[in-house]
Design a protein that fits this description.
By secondary structure, the chain is mainly β. 10% of the residues lie in helices and 38% in strands. It folds into five domains: 187 residues, Jelly Rolls; 116 residues, Immunoglobulins (Immunoglobulin-like), CATH 2.60.40.10; 194 residues, TIM Barrel; 108 residues, Immunoglobulins (Immunoglobulin-like); 131 residues, Galactose-binding domain-like (Jelly Rolls), CATH 2.60.120.260. The strands form 14 sheets. Strands 26-27-28-29-30-31-32-33 form an eight-stranded parallel beta barrel, surrounded by four helices. Strands 5-4-6-12-9-10 form a six-stranded antiparallel sheet, with no helix packed on it. A six-stranded antiparallel sheet has the order 52-51-53-58-55-56, with no helix packed on it. Strand 36 and strand 37 form a beta hairpin. The chain starts with 9 loop residues before the first strand and ends with a strand. The protein binds beta-D-galactopyranose. The site of beta-D-galactopyranose (GAL) has 12 residues, from loops. Keywords: Glycosidase, Hydrolase.
């Protein structure tokens, strides 16, 4: 995901000044410390402690500001901790036999003095699963879905300058929302966004072009918020930028503005309309083949001063469903050639780098796919942006079927975040729900559909139904378009019973295929590549598409699935730990299903797949050969001799059975009687060497850019050896390995580290750049008996990404209590009665105490257990700001004195001592003079 705008652009009237908006968007992916396990909250017994624990800022245990996390290992986001766990038989099968559990993350943030007065928001893009978030010891969010983002206003609690802020997240990944691998932890990006108190709220601009009888227009809705102290009168300006002409922003295509009052601590919503202007008369349309994108720049100004600014992307396209003819994009018929996918990938679990997201979408383009159903949940922003860029229609799907407030908020968040994407063409409120055929289901969907339409009326609402289609009242009556999962034999009956409801296949196929395997073996948990095996509820790739392609009223379909995914192994279980439904395997390597769908879907170029390889053991053994072609005829040649020419079956593919003889098989595809494409599989020699192939020519040195590399074994002629299973070891410099895969659904090998075997000829290693280390990434792959492969990838210097400043762990002492002022000198060890909440006062450091009327003493104290290192070897206590003369005691023993009454800092030694201790400060107060702590108090170890 790119950073939000600090855009420099050129206008039609010459270059406009660089607009460095006051908004700062900073990644918060660094500085995290991680604990792999739960830390139960302490059981509180005393009344005073109970009273204090119930207060803001007083989170207990590992959520406390002063908790010792200094020994926790550092981690960077995105972090799917489950992907690091071993695959074990007693773990959950649906989640890929990986242990989940409860974990903790802590971070320490420092904001600049100049940030004081800004609006500061924490954005957590995705945490699996149940997350509890504390900021400076105060509970700030509970988020019970692993798929939606959380935006948290930190402004009221934040501290600035030398003061640091504690951020703690407890993640309960034992909670599951799905029946597939969901990963665990803070697995998407985290951000800190600093804005003017008067600002555009997150996801607060809706600017999606629509076309009506008068032509194109963009209704613009801008939601503003004001956390400042006074009401503000502002001007909101939205401009459509036409960035055609080789990607250069060439000018303002339309502009609109409005003024509004944003009252303090309130939202204001502005409605405007971008209309007129040549671009709007004749915009370049977004389509799956030409995904033309435009930008809307929205600014908030006050008396000519820029307060906030944001860029949203949009695309001009129309869509409609016809009950008889299916789907139309820009008034052109488009059969939906879609795939369902989950969000994980080999090696990285659900923490998928943007570079791998891009790779996956390019693979789907090559397949001829034009639509993706994001089953069954919201995806990352980066993935949604990439769908706009690559030209995929997206069926965006909600996770939980429930109109209760908490889940309605998740649904509305999804629509609000994703409604600008031209790719989104359907909002799906559920997948396969037992209540789908009931009146209760109908009532639930009515409400959810309404919640969607409150925010967007330009896309229909749908639901993926696997039953209940024919009951008197069911969800089909509450959606605009019906999605049918499987039940292909019910299509005609449904269409007949509901001639006014558009319908499509929201899910079909669920066929089994293991890459590089040509004989199904139930004992070995592998399925052959001839498309013979499918789940009882599903159909083969060929048959499922045939049912869709031969019915005009079915708008298209979504194959289950585009890629294999971790978890839900079917039909096999342990040690199978990932699915084999994919058209591609877990790494994105093509299976035979890839050629089948290419033959069915690709129209603009000849495709010709040939199955199987030609490395068999016994001469004469009969081998089944399959050709997948989008031409008119295909002819198979075995060692140069024709085995027969056949008319292409565009749905069921073409087959021959021929005796094996080493050499080659070749298939020729004919159109108009001429050979337009030839594919050849040769018998290879023994594997001799390894080969590494990059996905892209290089990487950017931002520490974030990543890409998959392919490793394979080759023979002496450089030919891919299809059955090689060698264990490969990698050595890398100038980059890092973030994951390993090979597409073997039965492998128990870790996906992390530096070793992974090939599976049927292929392996994948995902490499990432190191931050600030431009130059060359070097990677070497070795395997016993094979010549090593070396690959060099140029790593290009790039502007560093903007990160939020974080600091090492700090123990803050922030829960103090104060004795009543006394005229005579009190005993510094004096304590309050445990049930006395009022003669002693609990307080937080940072503000001076008001002056007293007469000279006297004020005793303040804190109980705490120093970090383990300090307990062991002693350390320091730092008073960052202390005003007034005082004596400091530890467990009743004087450890320091401040004789000067003026404000200043004080650092004192702390002795080694295990367990809890009491620190007290006895102020000698002079009448009329303020005193106390005007800064944080923290401890640190000596080292
Ligand atoms: C469907 C379901 C998918 C997946 C698939 C496997 O019923 O919607 O999530 O479980 O079956 O065939």
């Amino acid at each position: 995901m790119g950073l939000l705008p600090q855009t420099v652009f050129a206008g039609t009237n010459g270059p406009e000044a660089a607009v460095a908006g006051p908004r700062e968007t900073l990644l918060l992916n660094k500085g995290w410390r991680f604990f792999d396990g739960d830390i139960p909250f302490p059981i509180i017994v005393g009344h005073g402690a109970t009273y204090n624990a119930a207060k803001a800022g007083s989170a207990q245990g590992a959520a406390a500001t002063g908790y010792d996390d200094s020994e926790w290992p550092p981690v960077s986001l995105p972090h799917d901790f489950v992907s690091f766990q071993p695959i074990v038989e007693d773990a959950n099968v649906s989640q890929g036999y990986r242990k989940r559990g409860i974990v903790w993350y802590r971070n320490t943030l420092r904001f600049e003095k100049a940030d004081n007065g800004k609006h500061i928001e924490l954005q957590l893009d995705g945490i699996a699963t149940n997350a509890t978030v504390w900021f400076n010891g105060t509970l700030v969010a509970r988020n019970w879905s692993g798929y939606n983002s959380v935006y948290i206003d930190l402004t009221p609690y934040a501290t600035y300058g030398d003061l640091v802020n504690s951020l703690v997240i407890r993640v309960d990944a034992n909670a599951m929302e799905g029946w597939w691998y969901e990963g665990g932890g803070i697995y998407r990006d985290a951000w800190i966004v600093k804005r003017n108190p008067v600002h555009i709220v997150t996801d607060g601009v809706f600017a999606h072009p629509i076309k009506d009888d008068e032509g194109w227009k963009i209704p613009v809705e801008v939601t503003l918020n004001n956390t400042g102290l006074s009401d503000s009168q502002v001007t909101v300006i939205s401009r459509l930028w036409d960035k055609r002409a080789a990607g250069v922003l060439s000018g303002i295509a339309a502009e609109v503005q409005a003024t509004t009052k944003v009252s303090a601590l309130e939202n204001a919503v502005v409605h405007m309309e971008l209309a007129h202007g040549s671009t709007l008369t004749n915009p370049a349309l977004w389509s799956v083949d030409n995904p033309e994108l435009y930008e809307v720049h929205t600014r908030v100004e006050q008396d000519g001063k820029l307060l906030d600014e944001i860029t949203t992307t949009c695309g001009f396209r129309t869509q409609r469903f016809d009950v008889d003819k299916g789907f139309f994009l820009n008034d052109k018929h488009l059969k939906i050639q879609g795939v369902c996918i989950h969000q994980d990938h080999a090696g990285v679990g659900v923490a998928v780098p943007d570079g791998v997201i891009d790779f996956r979408l390019r693979r789907l383009k090559e397949l001829g796919c034009n639509a993706i159903r994001f089953s069954h949940n919201a995806q990352s922003r980066a993935l949604m942006d990439a769908c706009d860029r690559h030209g995929f229609l997206v069926m965006a799907e909600n996770r939980v079927f429930n109109p209760a407030l908490i889940h309605m908020a998740e649904l509305q968040w999804l629509v609000r975040r994703d409604r600008n994407h031209p790719s989104v063409y359907l909002w799906s409120v559920f997948n396969e729900e037992p209540m789908q055929g009931t009146e209760a289901g109908y009532q639930m969907v009515r409400r959810m559909s309404e919640a969607v339409k409150e925010l967007d009326t330009s896309r229909p609402v749908t639901a993926a139904m696997n039953d209940g289609l024919f009951t008197p009242l069911n969800v089909a009556h509450a959606v605009d378009v019906v999605g049918i999962n499987y039940q292909q034999d019910q299509y005609d009956a449904f269409h007949k019973a509901h001639p006014t409801i558009p319908v499509f296949s929201s899910e079909d196929t669920s066929a089994f295929m293991t890459r590089g395997v040509y004989k199904t073996d139930m004992d070995k948990h592998v399925s052959a590549s001839y498309d013979d095996d499918a789940a009882d509820w599903g159909a083969t790739h060929c048959k499922a598409w045939k049912a869709i392609a031969t019915r005009d009223y079915i708008a298209g379909g979504f194959v289950w699935t585009g890629f294999d995914y971790h978890g839900e192994p079917t039909p096999y279980i342990w040690p199978s730990n990932s699915s084999v439904f994919g058209i591609m395997d877990l790494c994105g390597f093509e299976k035979a299903a890839f050629w089948i769908h290419q033959a069915q879907w690709v129209k603009d170029r000849p495709v010709l797949g040939l199955v199987p390889h030609w490395n068999w053991e016994t001469a004469g053994q009969p081998v089944r050969v399959m050709a997948c072609s989008n031409q008119e005829e295909v002819e198979l040649f075995v060692n140069g001799k024709s085995a027969g020419r056949q008319k292409v079956d565009p749905y069921e593919m073409n087959f021959w059975t021929v005796p094996y003889a080493p050499g080659a098989i070749e298939v020729r595809g004919y159109t108009g009687g001429k050979v337009v494409r030839t594919t050849r599989n040769e018998t290879t020699g023994e594997p001799l060497a390894l080969r590494l192939t990059a996905d892209r020519a290089g990487l950017k040195a931002d520490g974030r850019d990543a890409q998959p590399l392919t490793v394979e074994a080759i023979d002496k002629k450089g030919r891919h050896v299809p059955l090689a299973q060698h264990m490969i070891t990698y050595e890398i410099s100038g980059g890092a390995i973030v994951g390993l895969g090979n597409g073997d659904a039965n492998s128990l090998e870790p996906e992390k580290g530096d070793k992974r075997s090939l599976y049927n000829g292929y392996g994948q290693v995902i490499v990432q750049s190191l931050e600030g280390q431009a130059g060359t990434l070097r990677i070497r792959a070795t395997a016993p008996g094979l010549k090593a492969a070396d690959l060099r990838l140029p790593v290009e210097a790039t502007a560093p990404l903007a990160y939020q400043v974080t600091t090492p762990s700090v123990q803050l002492l922030d829960s103090w209590f104060m004795a009543p002022m006394s005229v005579t000198r009190p005993d510094p060890g004096q304590k309050a009665a445990d049930n006395d909440m009022n003669s002693w006062q609990w307080f937080r450091p940072g503000t001076l105490n008001r002056p007293l009327d007469q000279d006297g003493y004020s005793l303040v104290a804190v109980r705490y257990a120093p970090f383990a290192k300090v307990q062991k070897a002693g350390g320091k206590v730092e008073f960052l700001g202390i005003t007034g003369a005082c004596e400091v005691y530890e467990n009743g023993k004087l450890i320091g004195t401040k004789t000067d009454a003026a404000p200043g800092a004080l650092t004192l030694d702390l002795p080694a001592l295990s367990g809890e201790r009491r620190l007290s400060v006895l102020f000698k107060v002079r009448a009329g003079e303020a005193y106390g702590f005007n800064g944080q108090i923290r401890t640190r170890s000596k080292t």
